[in-house]
C-alpha cells in the first residue's frame, strides 16, 4: 500500500495548522475575556485604562481513598462552593465517583482515585473556594442514601498538598426516628447542603458523630495573584 | 524690532513661541507616571489603596481530642482582633454542631471559617478564643473548658493545636463536678487574653486539645517592610 505524506504526521493536520488570527493582532476579542491574546504584555499602551485582568486559580487533584469504619460500598460526590465573584473558567464544579468496595484483606481502605480539575477567575480573595464532600451508599433496597458529610478549603498556597478530611454523619435524636429512617431509606440528612456544610451557620442545633477519614491530594496553580499584591506562600524561590 | 513686522518675521516669531510651548509640554509629559509604565508594561498601576495591608484567614475547626468524656461536645469560637484591625466581610459567629466521640475519643467538628481583615498595625494580631461546652443525655449544656490560640502570621497552610483548661475549685466543687457534672466556670472571659493579671488568682485543671487548620493569605505586608517569615 502506498503511504501518503499525511500518514507520517503526528496527528491530524488540522490540529497543527497555524491560527489565522495572530496573537499579536490589534483586534481584541472581547467575547472571551480569558483568551491569551489579552495578555498584559501585548496590549497597546493606553495610559487612561487600568491594565485590569483577573487572577486565576487552577485546582486539580484527586480524591484518593478513605476509611469509613465498617461501612462499605461508598461513592463520593463533591461540590465546589465559592463566592459570587469567582467565575468558573473551565472544568466541572460537581462530580460523582464510582462505588468503591474494600479489598478482601484486613485493610479498611476504600480507593476511588477520582480526579477533578477546575479553573476559577476572580478579582478578590474573599469567599475562597471550598470542596464539600458527600459519602453515599446503597441501602438494603438499592436506594442511594447520603450518609457522610465533610468539607475542606482549597489550599491557598501553590503546589502540591495532601489533605485528610474527617467526615461526619448526622445522628437522629430518637431511636424510633432512626428505625423509620432505615426502613424508608431516608436517614437524617441535611436539607440545605452544600451551603449548610460550607458556611457552618445553622448547624448549631444538629448532632453528629464521626464518620471516617478521606484523603484528597490537591495541586494548586495560581496566576496574577502576586500582581494584585497577595502573598500566598512563604517559600521564596 | 520695528512696530511694523514683516510677514516672515511675524511667522517666525509665532513659530518660535509655538516651539517653546511644545517643548514645555513634552517635558511635562515625560514627568508623568505613564511614561514609566510604557517602558515596563508588566508592572501594574497601583494606587495608594493597594498598599493597605490585608489578611485572609481561611480554614476549618477540624476537631478535638483528649477530653475524657463520653458526652457530646460543641465549641463556641470567638474571633478577637486588635483595635487597628477592621473586618472587611461580615463573619458569622462560630458555634459548631454537637459531636459524639468515637472509640479513640476524637470529635469531628469540621466547621469552616473565613475572616478577611485589613490592618493598621501589627499589634493585636487575630486570635481565637474557644469555649468548649458539653451536652449530656438529658440535654443539659455546660461550659467545661477554655482556650485561646493566635492565628498564624505568615502566608501558607498551618495546623494549629489549641490546648484548653478549666478552673479548679476546692474539694467539694471538684467532687460535685466529678459525680454530677457542672465544673467551676469563669464568670468572664477576661482572664483568657484581655486581662492576664487576673490569672494570678486561679488554679486550673488541664483539658483536651482543639485542632484547627488555617490557611493564610497576606497582602502588602512585605511592601511595607514587615517580615513575617
TrEMBL record, chain A:
It is found in: Cytoplasm, Cytoskeleton, Cilium basal body. GO terms for cellular component: MKS complex. Its main location: cytoplasm. Residues 14-24 have a biased composition (Basic and acidic residues). GO terms for biological process: cilium assembly. Keywords: Cell projection, Cilium biogenesis/degradation, Cytoplasm, Cytoskeleton. The keyword Cell wall biogenesis/degradation does not apply. Belongs to the B9D family. InterPro entries: C2_B9-type_dom. Residues 1-31 are annotated as: Disordered. The lineage of its organism: Eukaryota, Sar, Alveolata, Ciliophora, Intramacronucleata. This is B9 domain-containing protein 1.
UniProtKB/TrEMBL annotation, chain B:
It is found in: Cytoplasm, Cytoskeleton, Cilium basal body. Keywords: Cell projection, Cilium biogenesis/degradation, Coiled coil, Cytoplasm, Cytoskeleton. It comes from the Eukaryota. Its main location: cytoplasm. The keyword Signal does not apply. Pfam families: B9-C2. GO terms for biological process: cilium assembly. This is B9 domain-containing protein 2. It comes from Euplotes crassus. The lineage of its organism: Eukaryota, Sar, Alveolata, Ciliophora, Intramacronucleata.
